[in-house]
Amino acid sequence: MSGFCKVHFLDYFEKKVEDTISRFGLLDKDDRVCVAVSGGKDSVVLLYLLNKFGYDVSALAIDEGIEGYRSETLDFLRVFCSSYGVPLVIKSFKDETGRDLDDMPSHGSMCNACGTFRRFMLNKYSQGFDKVATGHNLDDEAQAVLMNLFKAQLDLFDRQGPITRESDGFTRKIKPLYYLREKEILAFAFLKGFDVPFVECPFARLSFRSKVRDFINSAEVINPGVKDNIISTFLDLKISNDSPVVTGTCEVCSFPSEGNICRACRLKETF
Question: What predicted TM-score, i.e. pTM, was given to this entire model?
Answer without folding.
Answer: 0.90
